[in-house]
Fold this protein.
Amino acid sequence: IPYSLNAPHRFMIQADYKLNDRITLGAEFASRSGYSYTPVCSELDIYDDIKYNNDYYMGYIDITNSSQFPANSVINLHAEFKLGRFELYLNCLNVANRNNPIISTSNGLIYDAGILPSLGLKIR
């Protein structure tokens, strides 16, 4: 599974604005180059009679990580509200609803979640 630090090109910027002692608003933009991956289907799969020889093996080595996903970009928004002993967190990930492919399968690409809101509560 690719890890975000393995992307050769990454950029991230985050900004928070504190309206007052109780309310903080923020946004984040992150982008990275797409991961390399090995295509699921190959023309080498149809040659059953040449399996287990050097040419077959070297053919698979040549296609390993030969494809690349497009760039992955997200815009995330968050807010924090402090109410005495309680802190309420609101997050909305991928607010632009960008289709970022993350897995390649024989049926096509699988994309990450679209707009993903979440809510959290912390009690001190």
About this structure: The mean pLDDT is 85. The two ends are 36 Å apart (CA to CA).
